[in-house]
Amino acid sequence: MYVIDIPPETKEAPPDAGKEQIPQEEPDVPDTKEPVPEPPVELGPEPPKEPEPPCENGQSEACQSERPGLCGPGVRTCTDNQWGPCVSLQQPSPELCDGLDNDCDGKVDNIEGTSQQLFKECYPSATRGCTTAAGTYRCQGLCRAGKQLCTQGQWGSCQQPIRPTEEICNDGLDNDCDGEIDETCECALGENQPCWPGDALQCPDGKPCNGICKRGIQGCTSERKWGVCVGATLSQPEVCNGKDDDCDGLIDNQKSSPKPLEQACYSGPANTRNVGECKDGVQRCINGTWDACTGDTLPTVEKFCGNASPKDFNCDGIPNNFKELGKPCTDPTRKGICRPGTWKCVNDAIACAANETPRKEECNNLDDDCDGTIDEALIRECPYSGPPGTQNVGICKAAKQSCSQGVWGQCSGEVIPQQETCNYVDDNCNGTLDEFVPLQQVGKATIYTQSGSQSHMYLSATNTGYVLGWSDGQSQNVTLALTKADGTRQAPNIPVTKGNEFGNIHGLTFTGTDIVVTWDSDKDEIAGDAHILKLDANGKRLIGPNIMAKGGRMVNPQVTTGPGFLGVLWSDYIKNQLQIQTLDTNLKPIGTTPHSFPLSTRNSPYPGLSFSGDRLATVWTTSQNKLKIAVVDKNNKKLGESEIPNAGTNPANATIAGDKTGFLVVWSDLSNGKLLGQRIDRNAKPVGQPLTIAAQGARTPIMKATSYGGLIAWIQRQNGQNGVSIAWVDNKGTLLAKPSWFAVSNIVDYLALAWRDTAQGRGRGAIAWMDRFNVIRLAPLGCQLVAP
């Protein structure tokens, strides 16, 4: 048998390694011995086995990490049959005094980041000076917290705390840690201070002492206590010397009272003091001196006779011993001519009966009325030289003269009527302020519309300002604006008509409480109605709009305010009639039907309308260039109708204003530019001759009635400038002052005027105008004030 050995350097076994080897045949040898068993067959080395893994997945075991302290012990876990890293079971924590390395820095009981021994602040409990909150001590004064060291995991005793000690004076330190410095020391050696041993009210802290009192001085003793107060001036009983002796803050006053010192006194004969009816009086200390004795009862004559009384009035010790009956006397309680008298016994009483009784004071250098004053307040009016009816009106008054030493003096102070000026005074003594003074535009005009298609503008005065109305020629809507007294806008515009209602305004009035406006709906001059609307003073609708006239073509409706009712008119374009009507305050007709006046043309543009008392008048032009006027009563009954003579070649734009006795009509003659006028009575009859108010260049006048006539404005060009003239006229149409004139920027097409008389006798007015670009402006009217 062969055993095949693999050389050591052979790295791989032969291909048949490990397989059974077949022996070769050998030659026969004679078997002379016992048979020997066959040795076992030797095989080659076994193939290598796979190594066993160190762990099984998911298996865990304790381990020691490389981190020091409490962070060393850990655990590792088998993953993919391999042990993972050792993970600490505990993370670093703040170091404690426990003999362990809590923060895992390799040091035990140390301050983090250092090798210093761990310590904490401490302070003895129940000891003043330091308090703790969340382990932190807060100390007062010199007190400080100590330290406790951590040794072998245990806190040691509190080392070196600074505890309170007894307060030391004048070292500037809080030794006893109570929050106060040197509090037990009243003073310092060598220190002095003012002092006061008396009543604190006499020398209040921080203030000077009262009266004669003065503070003393006290020094600091060796015990640091204040010594005795020396050198103080204390209070004394109050005496009448002009000083505050008792130091109560008052001079020469009674104790515990602000009243002055008083003492008993007597000014009569010494032997009569406190005898009979004579008694002491009182005198008071004033400015350090006793004043006169008052209230003492002095000897008088005996008051009774015939043993009527036991009283001794003359203080001689004997009552009723009067011996002067029938003799002259003087009563000191009476004055003037009433003082002298005669002693008489009247009803058992002695009396100094007056020889004279009071009478009316005369200019005689005597006290006639016995009031103690001679010829007092004796003033009389001198004869007045001014016109009758003007005395004591406005500034006018009679002269006066005064009595002096029994003689009347010169007359002085008379004021007679003067020329009226703008000074808020009635200079001409007619009961009205600043009337007839030329008016001007006051301040800057307020613009109410921009360039557009506005037309038909009207203005009326309210209680607080004005109401302005106009029409938009394009939309044909009517708009109102409320203004303040200075002409500026008071509130947003008030639409009267809206949308497709259409309206051309022709009338606007203020009744004293409400606003009434009229317009027509004559769109495109084809057909329309006459409308009326009542609003309150703030523009809120009250009644309407109502239709006054409808059917056909009703145009140019106007309205004016009468005594408790309204007057309206309109033109019936189809029937060629001017119709006039009165309405109550609820816009209801008063008469049964309106009164109609025939027109010679289909339309009289803008007829005038005004009241004289309860009579309503209207004025209009005819196609023959005539001017006519008619008057109706409250029930629309015609009282008169006439043609105004000498109205000119081409009268136009007639305006009318009424008063108590009739009407004044003003118009322009377009042929020559004159402004003419005519007085009309209450039955429509002309009175007197026609008037010429302006000689040339006048057009489109407008007039408002005033308490003394009328205020007229008209368009007039002057010195090449566009402008407006304003003039006062009396109720006869006579100019009361030269017309004023002011320029405007563009040619004026329409004017509107408003005036309101006031209770003070001075009126208030405004004017509005529309220029050729249809811009509407409004400005208050006033005069140039003259200093008094």
Describe the protein in words:
This protein is mainly β and 788 residues long. Among the domains are: 185-197 and 209-228, no CATH class; 440-782, YVTN repeat-like/Quinoprotein amine dehydrogenase (Methylamine Dehydrogenase, Chain H, 7 Propeller), CATH 2.130.10.10. 0% of the residues lie in helices and 35% in strands. The protein has no helices and 49 strands. The strands form 14 sheets. Strands 21, 22, 47, 48 and 49 form a five-stranded antiparallel sheet that branches. Strand 29 (530-536) and strand 30 form a beta hairpin.
Indicate the topology.
Elements: E1 60-64, E2 73-79, E3 82-83, E4 87-88, E5 119-122, E6 130-133, E7 136-139, E8 146-151, E9 154-155, E10 192-195, E11 216-219, E12 262-265, E13 281-286, E14 289-290, E15 328-330, E16 340-346, E17 349-354, E18 379-381, E19 400-404, E20 407-408, E21 440-441, E22 446-449, E23 454-461, E24 465-472, E25 478-484, E26 494-495, E27 504-510, E28 514-520, E29 530-536, E30 541-549, E31 554-561, E32 566-572, E33 577-583, E34 595-598, E35 608-612, E36 615-621, E37 627-632, E38 638-643, E39 651-658, E40 662-669, E41 674-681, E42 686-694, E43 698-706, E44 709-716, E45 723-729, E46 740-743, E47 748-756, E48 764-771, E49 776-782
Antiparallel strand pairs: 1-2, 2-3, 2-4, 5-8, 6-7, 8-9, 10-11, 12-13, 13-14, 15-16, 16-17, 18-19, 19-20, 21-49, 22-49, 23-24, 24-25, 25-26, 27-28, 28-29, 29-30, 31-32, 32-33, 33-34, 35-36, 36-37, 37-38, 39-40, 40-41, 41-42, 43-44, 44-45, 45-46, 47-48, 48-49
